[in-house]
Write a structure and sequence with these properties.
binds flavin-adenine dinucleotide, four-stranded parallel beta sheet, five-stranded parallel beta sheet, globular
Length: about 425
């Protein structure tokens, strides 16, 4: 499949599923006099936000849709590296739910504290909200103690910026204050984590900023608990071409183990050496958002197993899990994946609640990463249910030595994708 066809397929998949599943109509299933079925969606990111909007829009008023999301101005993690590199403003990656509200989704701007699965209720402060179906899309939480010495308090000194907003702004402020000769140390996360190429795109954006400011002696060391990473061959080639000698990636064979960090002295300790850095970016290990763990929806991996045919929780037939909080088999954790899973879940929920027609689940993903201006690489694939998991059915990845116009075109594709996904989520 060409890129163009694949992109078309992705956007058409959402559109055509929507068109094909327009209800024929709800009352046939539930009866005229009965109350509308209630869908509650927890989380207003690419996962939850897409489900809420698509069910609301395509059910045409036949389902009562409530979305619980405490953040009024949602800054996207996706494209936050582009902001770090200075290509976008913070404002341009920050969105609100005004249009979603106007379209008829009831938004509860607060944290949900617990889910009572027996009563089919979700608790928000003292209020309990009943549901017929619940979608949870709380994203990730960070395992602070996965890096000894690191903590939520330490993130004020050593930002993670793996959840967006103030943390990303802090990272950028610290990056822009660096003088030539600075050392940046990034502690990369173990699998599975949100956005597999994200740490390496971020290191590229650090280097881009330092190079643009004329730094000659500054250095970036990535300490990785993994032995390989996403798009490694093309990242490594790009780093050599654009930033020779500036980015050093160390796997466990080199550093011998990450022993911990000291936020008071800005030091990172490994078996090989202790690094005193001017900027430390710690990206800890991750789990599904706490509320999913508390509700017993996660397994020993720390993420929520789902039925690949429909995104329904394997722990509870009334609950769907989409986005980073689920274990999607071979699909990576990305906004693109979350959005694709959300479109499948929205279709299946309309099928269940109002008898709308459903089609076999198909998923897709692409992750673009910018290495340097107009040098953008991508990885992705299409996916379908395969036994117990979502399985890859086709894949593609950028190759070393590609012509510059392909890389430039990739960047343009990523900008088009950003525009399209934020419109899916925020209207
Ligand atoms: C640096 C970086 C770069 C990235 N770049 C890309 C990229 O280029 N392309 C891409 O596809 N992906 C990218 N990603 C990954 C992408 O951001 C995530 O995969 C995506 O945001 C997951 O969506 P989600 O809806 O599952 O979770 P989230 O976006 O985290 O949304 C979860 C929402 O749930 C809410 N929530 C959580 N708990 C509760 C609760 N108890 N009550 C109420 N609400 C709650 C939160 O407030 C949040 O708004 C990147 C990530 C990072 C960190």
């Amino acid at each position: 499949m060409t890129d163009l066809t694949r992109r078309k397929f992705t956007s058409l998949a959402g559109a055509s599923l929507a068109a094909m599943t327009t209800p024929l109509f709800a009352p046939a299933v539930l009866g005229q006099q009965k109350a509308k079925p209630k869908l509650v969606v927890l989380g207003g990111g690419p996962g939850g936000g897409t489900v809420a909007r698509f069910v609301n829009k395509d059910a045409a008023g036949a389902i009562d849709v409530t979305m619980i999301e405490p953040i009024r101005n949602f800054t996207t993690c996706f494209f936050s590296n582009i902001y770090v590199g200075g290509y976008r403003s913070f404002q341009s990656i920050t969105h609100n739910y005004d249009k979603v509200r106007k379209e008829g989704v009831r938004i509860v701007p607060a944290w949900a504290s617990a889910i009572d699965r027996d009563k089919k209720q979700i608790m928000v402060g003292k209020q309990s909200i009943s549901y017929d179906r619940l979608v949870i899309a709380p994203g990730i939480d960070l395992k602070w103690d996965s890096v000894p010495g690191y903590s939520e308090a330490a993130s004020q000194t050593m930002p993670h910026a793996w959840k967006p907003g103030a943390q990303t702004q802090l990272l950028v402020k610290r990056l822009n204050a660096l003088r030539d000769g600075a050392l940046i140390v990034m502690v990369a996360p173990p699998n599975p984590y949100r956005c597999p190429p994200g740490p390496y795109e971020r290191a590229s954006m650090f280097a881009h900023v330092l190079k643009a400011k004329g730094h000659k002696k500054s250095k970036i060391i990535i300490l990785d608990p993994k032995t390989a990473f996403s798009k490694q061959a093309v990242f490594t080639e790009g780093w050599q071409r654009h930033y020779p000698g500036m980015i050093e990636w160390q796997d466990p064979k080199v550093h011998g183990g990450i022993k911990g960090v000291n936020p008071k002295t800005n030091e990172v300790m490994t078996d090989l050496a202790n690094y005193k850095a001017q900027l430390v970016n710690v990206i800890p290990a991750q789990t599904a958002g706490q509320i999913a763990l508390k509700a017993g929806l996660a397994d020993k991996t720390g993420f929520c197993p789902i039925d690949p045919e429909n995104m329904r929780s394997k722990m509870d037939a009334n609950i769907y899990v989409v986005g980073d909080a689920c274990i999607p088999g071979q699909m990576p954790k990305s906004a693109f994946s979350a959005n694709s899973q959300a479109k499948v879940a929205a279709m299946m929920i309309r099928g269940e609640l109002i008898g709308a027609k459903t089609f076999p689940a198909r998923y897709s993903n692409t992750c673009w990463s910018l290495i340097e201006t107009d040098d953008d690489i991508k990885v992705g694939g299409t996916y379908e249910p395969g036994g117990d998991i979502i399985k890859e059915s086709s894949t593609f990845v950028s190759k070393p030595g590609e012509p510059a116009d392909i890389r430039k075109q990739n960047y343009q594709e990523s900008i088009d994708w950003y525009r399209s996904i934020v419109s899916d989520i925020f209207g």
